[in-house]
Specification:
With 479 residues, this protein is an alpha+beta fold. It is 25% helix and 27% strand. A hairpin with a 2-residue loop joins strand 7 and strand 8.
Length: 479
């Protein structure tokens, strides 16, 4: 049982805790204790850098969905447009050598050939160095067996092992063989023969400067390898067809090149065993081309959507308080007609000229460094079809401002030391220049890139990246 005095003391103690105690004068309530100081962790520093660094505008589209398969017609494709005939039409050198060994060891069938896989070995002979003065020739082989399409294979040595699928050859039909010596700028014919097939296998052609031998690969081995390659193609195609969105701005807007390689390699092998027009190869090739067509449509739409939401061309873009830039002009060189008669079969060198303004408080050089803010970063150019090109950046020198120019001129006007006997006199220096931008100054930089041969899409977008951050995205004016 509490006494009245105890109750008074308990009330005074509670009042001191809640609102303070009055002892002769009125005192302010007790303030809350200050929070403990925060100790930044490495992750906090990364987040702080990301918060300060420029980011993509939230209104810009980061992805575009591929059109539905039923919205894109399925074309009749036999040879993929992204695969070259010739050296890439067969298996790799190791697989071709294995097939050649199998064909050599297996008993050869007689009579006509109908859809057989034939392994061949061609050799260029130049013992007196008539065709190549410094070593063995590097050969190019052209071979047509009966009504089978011509096969063209090249080698960096005097020997080439290759395969030809779907060979159709009857007794009495002719073979056409050419072996060329490939030089740096030209080629020279070493062997040309057109023997008649007499029904005997293996095929053998001998000439003073080359020879050819071909044998049939066992059908059971061809079937086993073809089924394994077809299974790999189906697995890779299934994963690829699950990619239904572009990503960007990014390299080729996120085109999964590694996944494409997982399709290409077994598809090449399957075509090497069966032929591009085989019923097992054509449907798979059409599926791949169909997906690539859908991707191209989505990537092109992504470029158009970015252009629609970006500022007008020629305006200043300030991705960071330290600098601003704008596109002045761009051009692509016309290929040399003497080196490239068609005008479209050679690479075209292109240049974009930018004006850059230093809006920061410190001087810097717009050198395209990869190390963060205040620099332009690494340039990329996007074409109207959604493909991208890496580019290089070079600041253009400009005259030094006064008084730096005066000091540099005085130093240049000082008498130079006389050259030593036998030495050429030093060249007279030109007017002093610099690429460094002081605060408030403007300068020009050039962005250079190349368009691959045969490609006509126009450049539409330019962006700069540093690490994983997008610094600037600039539209390009149309010519």
């Amino acid at each position: 049982m509490r006494t009245p005095a105890a109750r008074v003391l308990l009330a005074l103690f509670a009042g001191a805790l809640l609102g303070g105690v009055a002892c002769g004068s009125r005192q302010a309530p007790l303030a809350a204790p200050p929070p403990p100081p925060e100790i930044p962790s490495p992750r906090d520093e990364v987040l702080a850098y990301e918060d300060v660094a420029p980011k993509r505008e939230p209104s810009l589209p980061r992805s575009v969905r591929l059109p539905a398969p039923e919205q894109v017609p399925l074309g009749e494709v036999i040879h993929p447009r992204h695969l070259q005939e010739g050296d890439r039409a067969g298996p790799d050198a190791r697989a071709a050598a294995e097939l050649w060994d199998l064909a050599q060891a297996a008993p050869q069938p007689g009579g006509p050939l109908e859809g057989a896989l034939v392994a061949c070995r061609a050799v260029g002979l130049d013992p007196k160095h008539r065709f190549d003065w410094f070593g063995n020739p590097e050969i190019l082989v052209e071979l047509r067996l009966g009504t089978t399409p011509r096969a063209i294979r090249s080698s960096k040595t005097a020997t080439r092992i290759f395969t030809i699928p779907g060979v159709r050859l009857k007794k009495g039909e002719s073979l056409h063989l050419e072996i060329w010596d490939r030089d740096l700028t030209d080629r020279e014919l070493m062997v040309r023969r057109e023997p008649v097939f007499d029904g005997a296998l293996p095929l053998k052609v001998h000439a003073p400067h080359g020879r050819l031998e071909c044998a049939v690969v066992p059908a059971a081995e061809v079937e086993r390898r073809a089924q394994a390659a077809a299974s790999q193609v189906d697995t890779a195609l299934g994963w690829l067809e699950g990619r239904d969105r572009t990503e960007g701005p990014d390299v080729d807007f996120g085109l999964p090149r590694e996944a494409l390689g997982e399709v290409h390699r077994p598809l090449w092998s399957l075509a090497a065993y069966r032929g591009w027009d085989h019923p097992e190869v054509r449907p798979r090739t059409r599926r791949l081309e169909h997906w690539l067509t859908r991707w191209d449509l989505a990537a092109s739409a992504h470029v158009v959507e970015l252009l629609r939401r970006l500022p007008a061309t020629g305006e200043w873009v300030a991705p960071d308080p330290a600098f601003a830039l704008r596109v002045e002009r761009w051009r692509c060189e016309v290929p040399d007609r003497g080196r490239c008669p068609s005008g479209i079969d050679c690479d075209r060198d292109c240049t974009i000229t930018l004006e850059v303004e230093n809006r920061g408080e410190a001087a810097w050089v717009p050198d395209g460094s990869y190390d963060g803010l205040g620099k332009l970063g690494l340039p990329w150019v996007a074409l109207e079809d959604g493909r991208t090109r890496s580019a290089s950046l070079r600041p253009l020198p400009r005259p030094l401002p006064e008084p730096e120019a005066g000091a540099a001129a005085e130093a240049a006007a000082a008498p130079a030391a006389a050259p030593a006997p036998g030495e050429r006199p030093a060249k007279k220096p030109g007017p002093p220049t610099t690429t460094r931008l002081s605060p408030g100054e403007k300068g020009e930089v050039e962005v250079r890139f190349s368009l691959q041969r045969g490609r006509r899409p126009m450049p539409r977008l330019l962006w700069f990246t540093t690490s994983d951050l997008l610094l600037a995205l600039v539209p390009l004016p149309q010519p």
